[in-house]
Structure formats: C-alpha cells, structure tokens
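Notes from the pairing session

We agreed to fold both candidates in a single pass and log them together. This is the raw record for the first candidate, unedited. Please don't reformat it; downstream parsing expects exactly this layout.

Candidate A
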Amino acid sequence: MSFFGAMTTAVNSIRAQASALGHISDNIANSQTVGFKRTDTSFYDVVTVSSGRNHLPGSVTARPAFTNSVQGVINASDVKTHLAINGDGFFVVSERIATVDNDPVFLNVDRYTRRGDFTVDKNGYLVNGGGYYLQGLAIDPATGNPSGNTPGVIQVTRQFLPAQASTQLDYEVNLPSDPKTVAFDPNTANSELLTAGDPAAPGNPFANDPSTITAVGSPPVNGFVQAGDENIFLDRSLSGGAITLFDPTGNPLNVQLRWAKVDNAADGAGTANGDTWNLFYKSNDAATGAQPKWVNVGQDYIFQNGQLNPAVNSTTITGLTVNGVNIGNITVNHGSGNVTQFSDPNGKVTVNEIDQDGFAAGRLVEVGVGDNGRVTGSYSNGKTLDLAEISVARFNSPDQLKKIDGTAFAVTQESGEPLTGDPGNIVGEATEASNVDIADEFSKLIITQQAYTAGTRIVTTTDELVQETLNMKR
C-alpha cells in the first residue's frame, strides 16, 4: 500500500460524498414540488487487489438511486382538474417544443409524470405546473366509450353542447291497489274506476262520445278526454308526476301524467283478467269544449297479484304533442317489473323514477376530473358529459426512467416500454406531494458531512506522512 494510493482513495471518497450532498440538496430544494421523486445515493466499492494475505485500497463511487416508484402523500385540492395516482403508473403527457399561430407544437415522443396539478389553459389544453400537456382518449358522446386506443393531447373546446330531442322516458311507478280518487266512495262499487258503473248510466261523462273512453276497461288506442270533461277526469284519476321533454331545438315542454284505473278484476266486466290501468298525458292546456285535453297513451296495464301480466317493459307514445308542438314518438321504458300495483296507505301513485334523455343547448361552465379517470364538462343546461379518458402507463422498472425537467420522465432501455392495464387508481381533486422527508434528508446530511470531513482528514494525514518521509534524508 502506498501513501498515494491511500490519498487517491480518500479523494474518491470526498467526490462520492460530494455527489451524495448534491442529491440531498436537490431533494431538499424540491421538497414542496408536486409529484417530485427524491434521489437517494448508493455507494459502490471498487476493489483492486484483494486476497487472504494482501489487500490494496481500492476506491468508491456514488450512484443515484431513484425512487420513482415510491408513493408520495396524496393531498386534497380545491381545483377540480387536479388529479393524482394512488398506486402504480404515470400520466402520459406531451412536451411543447414550439408555438405556431398561438397554438403549441408538441414533441412526437411521449413523456411521463406523476405531477397532477393540471389546469385548463387558454387553448383548452390541460397543462401541469411543469409545462406538460395531459394525454387521453376522446369519448364518443353517443356511446360513452373511448374512441380508439391511441392517446392524444386532451383539448377541451368551448363549443355549445347542441340540443338533443327527447326520445326516451324512464318511468317507474307503483299504482295503489285501492286508488283513493276524489270520486272514490267506499260504499259504491267501482267508484274508483274512470268509467265507473254501467257505461250507459246517466252522468257517465264518457258514455255518449265514441271518440273517448266508451266502455269499462275498453279504452280505444289514442283515445282522449275532452276539455269539457276534464274536471270529472281529474276526479277519477291520480297524478303520475310530470316531466320536462325537449323538442329538436331544445325548447322545453312540460308534460303532465295521470293514471286512471279502468277495470277491476272482481267486477266481471271489461277484460276481467285483472286490475287494468291506463296512462294519460296532458296535450293542450288551452283546449276548450270538445277539444282533446288529455290523451290516452293506448297501453293496457293489467295486474295480477301486484305484477303486470302480461309484462309491459316499454311502450311507445306515438306523436306526442303538447300545446301544438309535436315531439315525435317517445319510448316509455319501465324496465322489468318496475310498474307495480301494491297497497298504498294514501291510495296515491308513487313515482320511483322519472327521467328522460333530452336537453337544451348549453355552454361549457366547468371542467373537472372524476375518480373514474375521465375529464368531464359541466354545461349551463345542467348536463355533465365525459369528454376524455386519461391515459395512464406503467413500467416494469419505473426506477430506471430518466429524469428530465419539469418533474417528468423519459423512457430508457433499462425501464422498458410503457405498459397499459392494471394501473393505480386516479384520484380527482387531489395532488401527490413530493416523497421527500425533510427530517430524513437532514439526518443524511449530517452523516454525509461527517464522512466528507473524515475523507479530508485522510488526505491531510497522508500529506503529513509524505512530508515526514521526504524529511528522512535530512
């Protein structure tokens, strides 16, 4: 062993500790950087000659030990477009390399990041604090499914959401087995029916008009109630709720629904197969005299033991018209077993669900990100639509990714190619904090300082020994 060998080893030790000090400095400086991943230091010894009888000093090198796979704390955020990944994976982002006509030009190489402090810029892109643009898959508004499997930069447009005419009505109700209408008299048989008693009996408002309901339990398809008979009709029917439908231009049309029982299974008249109900909608608020005011949907709902028999999963209102505006055919979806006739203590109709698929035009009000990993747009008409699905990639060896500016990473041969499937969960309105622990970094700082100082002492001691050796000839 030579003095100069010992000095060389000590100098290499100083260099290694200086590298470690640089890593610690970088970590501390970025302790508050969103999505930052700290760099630890791994020391490797270099052996020159070593045997059972002889060992010459070698050297030491310091290599960075990346912690790209180490999760940071997820903090809640008030910004709706902030997001974090809980688990494995990285957001796929694009790097801007130029600006042409006020629009960004992107590098045709994907970058990856855990920094999720994305906000919408003036062009509608989602860009994070590091200057990277979020990628995802466009959503087909008709199906709600992603369009293709190749991600692109997400851009939210400020275009109006066009109006959509109503075509579907989801309607689930329970009709009372004993309807307590205004005209109901517990001492009068069949008084709860719309066409109670003998159809030819005096006072029956529908007995002498063949264009309306003409017999117990036998309403004609598309029959209607005249405006002059409305009060009697209201007294012998029950409210079934109301719904706003939309025409093709987005104009709202308020549609009132009513249910009327038209046959009892026990009276032996009409169908005699079960309790029978009909559904009506109000077609003309201004109708008078013999003009139609309430239109029969034209579907018999026959119940046995509280359930429809035969089943009516859906029916179609042909040419639904309200106050002179024809919306067209509306499909009323009940689903399987969602129109029932069970006892109700109040004798009223219970509406369990009533909804439709139309809406007026609307402007984009707000952009957010849900926990399902989709970018959503909220519009002034109350609609919320999925706009894009965020792309997340994972790697077999994420700690081998190359760090680049802006808390982003680039693919290397050691990291492997990006993989899709089974990534972590996206958390909306949250960001991932730096995984730097200040207390731990200060502890490493003290140890590094001591090791650096010890290395300098070896250099000093070796220098003194060399001087003493040179002075031996004097």
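Candidate B (folded immediately after A)
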Amino acid sequence: MGKRVCTIFLMITLVGILTGCGNDTEGGSKKTLEVALWDENISGAVDASIEEFNKEHPDVEVNVTYTPYANYFTKLRTSIGGGSGPDVFWMNGPNFSEYASYGLIKDLEPFIEEDSDFSKDAYFDSMIDLYSHEDHLYAAPYFSDIVGLFYNKRLFDEAGLEYPDETWTWEDIEEKGDILADQEEGVYGYTAYVVSNQAGYYNLIPQAGGYMIDEDKTHSGFNSPEAQEALTFTQDLIDKGISPSVQTQIENHPRDMFMSGMIAMHPEISVNAEMFYSELGDELGVAPLPAGKEEGSIAHGIGWAMNGDTEQEELAWDLIKHLTGEKGNQFIAESGFSIPAQESMSDLWVDSMPELDLQVFIDAQEVSFPYPVSQNTIQWQDIEQAEIQGAFLGYKSMKEALDNVAREMDIILESEQINE
C-alpha cells in the first residue's frame, strides 16, 4: 500500500457519510446500486437513463444522492476509504488521477473489451484522454464542458458596438471592454476571471503560447514568460476598471454579476448556457473566446466512475453504459445541460437552444487545450490558487507568486515520478 493510500485512510474519521456499496436486500430478492453526483440540474437526464436501465433490471433499486460540490469529494473519500461509498459516481479531471492511481476506481478496460456495445471512438478525444490512466479508461465520458464568451446583447446595443465574433483578440477585449464599462452604473466590460482558473487564466496561458503543466507531467509552466503575460493581461483589465477586482469576485461571484446585467462579457463553461439563457433570454449571446497568440479554450468534462470495491460490478457497468450510451447522451443533449460526450450527439444539444449559437462550443473542441492534470492535481492547484489570488490581492508580486507556484508544483511532480 503506497504512502498516498495510507494518508487517505488515515484521514478517514467518519464512515458511511454516503450509503455503502450496492447490496442484496430482502433475503437477496432486491439488489441496490448507489449513485452519487453533485449537480441536480441534470437530474432529469440521469433519471431518464435510470428508467431505461430499470426496464432491463426491474429488480434493481437505484438510489441517487446529490451532494453540493463543495463537500462532494470530501464525503466521497471518506466513504470509499471506509470500505463503502457509492457504486457509481461522478469524477472530474482534478481528482481523477489520484483515484485511478490508487485503485479507488475500477479500470473499465476489461469491461470494454468484453462489450461490443461500448466504443471509445464514439466520444470526444479530449474526454477519452482526460479519463485514461496508462492508456486504460477509468471513467466513462458523460458530458463535455468547454469555455466560450457569453455576452449581454443589450449592453452592446446601448454602447453601439458590434457583437463579438471569431475575429476577436485580446486587444478587442481591452478596447471594447473599456467602452462597455460604466463605473457610475456599476457595469464592467469583461470578467478577468481569477476565482475560476478553468474559465480564466487556464485559457489565457496557452493562448499566450505557454502551458500549466508539460506533456510529460514533470514540470510546471507557471513561471514562464507566457504565464506572466497572461496574468499581467488579467491584472491590467482589473486595474483599468474593465473587470471586477479579485476582492469583488470573491464577494460577488462574476457568474451572478453577469446574470444581473453588471458584466457585458463573461468567459464561462458551456454547462452554464441553459442557466444564463433562462435568466437573460434574448439578451444573451455567445462567441468563441478571443484569441491571444493562439486561439482555443480549455476542455474538460465529467465521467462516470465505478467504485473499486463495489460488489455489483456487472450491474454497475450496465448502469454506466445506460448513462453514457446513445440514449443517455440523447437525454443530456435534449435537456440543454451541456455538450454530450458522444460527438455524434452534438447537433441535438445545439438544437436544444436554437436562440443561441451553441455551435461555438462544438467548434471549440477542434482547437481546445487539455485540462492540466497530474497524479496529485488538487495539491498543486491549492498552492496555485492561493499564490495567484494572493498576488492579485496585493500580498506579493505576480512574478513571486508564479515562481512560488512553479517551485512547489515541480516538487509535487517530482514526488509523483518517484512514487510511480
């Protein structure tokens, strides 16, 4: 048992926060599967897939638990570490490698090899890459999320500006953002995101020609000139009043400010399209992220993983197939929640909200950057976010912060190589 696994189990002080792995009840006449995720907005699609599953398995009870994201992985680690936990559950990029590396989730490759109904070729490459460990798939792709530029048409119309399009660059953000900002009215031109790395500087650093982590996952790129350029651009937008300050972003989430008409342009993941449209209606528009030296945006998404200790692995696999198969993807697409992981179902999602140009997000897959991950992503992300936010709050220079991130991150990455 590795040091990291020991650490996980030593951290366990409570057992059973999430219901234990599926089991037989009523003398073996009824089987149960426990399912865990964090976003109830997708409950309709999840329930529809479970209904399809129950048509084939009427004797199986599927219990679904929704836990707010802030507590989700803490509870998941506790329950799995205690030998229980859900049979099937959501996994994200930052936590994936840790769970896969230490056997907390099952390798799905043996199931795939024996099952002609499941083909990895059906899914976006970015999703297969994200949830593969040593070339084996450990979480079945469910939906993709990628970053685009949402904007408020009313604010653009009032300023007499043309809407953003694929020709826009960083210079347009600064130029038009300055025109759109109105301090007297409390309106900002753009969200220079600091409280969200995925929607913020994780896009700007590769657009500047840099990277957060190299392809070999051995070195950080946070101390590069490109990272400095991206974060300096962010700081300039804040200093000029084009973007809310970091303190304001902490106190009032930019997502809420955008929906309240206080921000004209807001980079955000595709999952928020439905929520934004329900709030802003015809005032909402969407465009590709403005380009730096390079165009593109960060690609991420959610996968369904199987508990490494589940006692119902064949049933759990069949449920995962129903959730992530053609019908499951159809349910996601038609709900408007986000881009289904199966590439062939993209058009259904685009058609779910014809008032918006959702094709922007599909096209962005072609020029996307991979979400940065390693075995211990959460460890260095905590350092990264604390250092960078500290710089924006004035506690240190940006160069010092980025140098600190790179140094600490390289130590973590080196330890990962030693422990392999």
